[in-house]
Amino acid sequence: MKLLNERKINWTPFLLFLPVLLLISVFAVIPMGHLIKVSLHRTSYLKTLDFVGLRNYIRVLGDSEILKSIFISVKYIAGTIIFAVPIGLVLAIILNRPLKFNGLFRAILILPYAISQVASALLWVWLLEPSYGPLNYIIRTMGFSAINFLGNPQLALKVLILVNTWMSFPFAMVMFLSALETIPHDLIEAAYLDGASKLAAFRYVSFPFILNTLLVIIIMLTLRAFNMVTLIFVMTGGGPIGTTNALSLTIYYEAFFNFRMARAAVLGVVMFALNMIFATAYIAVIKREAIY
Amino acid sequence: MSIKIKKKGTNIVSYLILVLALSFVLIPILWALITSLKPEETILQYPPSFLPKKITLKNYTDILFKTTAPRAFLNSFILAIGGVVVTLFVALHAAYAASRFKSRLSNGVLFFILSMSFLPGITILVPLYLLSHKLGMHNTYFYLILVYCSFQVPQVTWFIRGFIDNVSPAMEEAALIDGCSKWGALYRIVLPNILGGMLASALIVFIFIWNDFIIASVLTISRDMRNVQMSLSLYHEDIGIFWGKFMAFNILSVLPPALIYMILHERFVKGLAVTTEK
Fold first, then answer.
1. B window 39-78, beta carbon within 8 A of A
2. Which residue of A has its CA nearest to B261?
3. How confident is the model at residue A124, as a pLDDT?
């Protein structure tokens, strides 16, 4: 009897986990190892040649173009967070109260999150089109000259931040909404009875409840913006004059257009390391939530 | 009295903010919709008409019957359905193990699986591209489906585990006593109780695959393998810039995920807390 029990305990979960572990090994762990290996070698097209140690890293990380693309990524992430998080929070606070058409508002406001990056990019490209787009028509009738939003080095990244905000704020909104719903109402009422102002009630009663959610939202939106290729690729392709060439897009070009695999691999490893910092933070937040 | 007025005031401000947000969300979509319903020759008119006098569905019928778009829709459906089936199968078993065989080891395995969802898509695509050539499986549905599955399985496992945790183990124990095997209990007792969670997972995976551009763009090469997103992004190269047809195609491509979201919205967006878009 004891023997039988032991066998059950040992093998069933292993068998259940086996497909996932196989899949992850073949499509994540082994490729990741291969990526590190490639980053340490000289490559020609798809072939890996001789071992060169960290020389690829020194060359790539000393490249001013790469440092510039990291800086563009940082601006892109910061711009998105600064707009998407407060917009999401304000809408969540409003929609958390019983309003007329509440469900309808929620259903529509979530739409951009469902729309693919390609489709979103094309919607905005057409809206901002310099000659026939409606926005430029309005600008012209107001007496200004038309603006080529995506062709202007001063504006292109700002437009990308705007579109990414459009795509990202629904996520923040829905996450905040579900966090706000967990706050017991009598707690807030008690604060009001004690003479707390609306702001104070939010800061000292509601805010601690949504702090974890806020962290999760910031981490997720940061990762999403940092790893984003498609939206930028379709809207600007990294231009004009490289002003929107974020790190993620640089990898895409280096690997699949220029076929400089060693260079792409080095950037991939750097990107992986930065992602892991955020992943660690995320898991720490989830575990904290589990404790409370 | 004064409280009532104050409340009314905040309500007006609330609705004002909501209307602003709605316009922000809807203007690009409505402009595309209007464009797609105009006859092609009126689209490049100046000034642009915001409410077209003549409405036509010709752009839609052209996209559906005169271009290669249907092939792209078919490809996306094949990939999405294949990906959903494989992902759910794999994730269900892992989630069951994580939920019912709680130990230090299985907890460790679960967090290891979850950590995989943080591999940046663009990073892992470089070696996956090299691997696809090495295996001779570049440009195949099979490889693409497995890659999609490997991207989605971590968060879906996490998601389904939450649903299994909510099914009382007492029912399974009763079934086990009646001579049902542990596997039998999974299929006969647990699965029927988490169909809602399975459906939500299926839709999440479906939308992920439907909306994917970058993975398909790297792992396929031939024109007949293009999915909806690739076909959409390359449309102007194939056909030329006809904005009416272009936006009709765009609207059609958005329909499946948009409908799913509008019907189910936050009920399963909560589950997306661990979803990263690659």
1. 43-44, 46-48, 50
2. A114
3. 96
CB atoms within 10 A of CB B112: 15
What sections of A115-206 are H helices per DSSP? 117-127, 134-141, 156-180, 185-193, 198-201
Average confidence (pLDDT) over B232-255: 88
One-letter amino acid of A14: F
Closest CA to A32 of B140, B110, B130: B130
CA distance to partner chain A, nearest, from residue B223 (Å): 17
Q: Are A270 and A61 in contact (CB under 8 A)?
A: yes
Q: Give the tokens for residue A206.
A: 């509601």
Q: Give the span between the Cα atoms of A33 and A24, in whole angstroms.
A: 12
Confidence at residue B267, expressed as pLDDT on a 0 to 100 scale: 59
Q: Which two tokens stand for residue B274?
A: 């661990």
Given a contact cutoff of 8 angstroms between Cβ atoms, the answer to whether B144 and B220 are in contact is yes
**Nearest Cα residue to A229 out of A218, A239, A220, A238:** A238
The DSSP 8-state label assigned to residue B223 in this structure reads: G
The pTM for the full model equals 0.90
Instruction: Count other C-beta atoms under 10 Å from residue B40's C-beta.
Output: 15
Contact B120 A226 (CB under 8 A): yes
* Prediction ipTM score: 0.89
- Residue ranges in chain A modelled with pLDDT below 70: 1-10, 289-292
How far, in Å, CA of A228 to CA of B122, rounded? 8
d(CA A291, CA A212): 12
**In whole angstroms, what is the distance from residue B116 CA to residue B81 CA?**
23
Spatial CB neighbours of B50, under 8 Å, sequence gap ≥ 6: A134, B34
